[in-house]
Amino acid sequence: MKKATVSLISLLILCLVVSSASAQIELPEVKITGIRNVPVKVDEAFKSTFKDGQDPVWYNANKNFLVKFINNDMRNNALFRKNGNMIYNISYGYEKDLPDNVSSLVKDQYDDYNVVVAFNVKQDNRDVWIVNLENEKNNVTARVEDGVLNEASRSRKR
After folding, report:
1. How far apart are CA 14 and CA 18, in angstroms?
2. Does residue 1 belong to any structural domain of this protein?
3. pLDDT of amino acid 80
4. Are residues 89 and 71 in contact, defined by beta-carbon separation less than 8 angstroms?
5. Count of domains for the chain
6. Could you give the CA distance from residue 87 to residue 105 in angstroms, rounded to a whole number?
7. Can you give the pTM of this predicted structure?
8. pLDDT, tens digit, for every residue of 59-89?
9. What's the CATH code of the domain at 125?
């Protein structure tokens, strides 16, 4: 039986939407273990992709290689195949880390909200920002891709 491959971006958005509905989904198990020796192709790919990457910590993630590191003052996770191809990169930041065009879109639509946290997901030539916002009444998760902002979820604060 073939396992369906779901892109990380779709899975992340699905998890955000589902979590806001208080539902539970079961994800496939991923075994992650720390490693010391990273294949040369993977190490070279990391260093050429993230020239300013600092403090990398490597893990085996099934048959792939996960690296956690700091780049441009943001925490990052990147997953590489053993041939050095990057599968995805997720950067974790705040309002100050949003690119100007993304920040403008978010602030225009949600001017009375504060950015709590922002995630930048890069996979398959896609660049998606997921922004969690809040005001005194609501929590909102917004998604920005290709200059288009969509609201992924909204919930009332209790």
Report:
1. 6
2. no
3. 97
4. no
5. 1
6. 28
7. 0.77
8. 998 889 999 999 999 999 999 999 999 999 9
9. 3.10.450.360
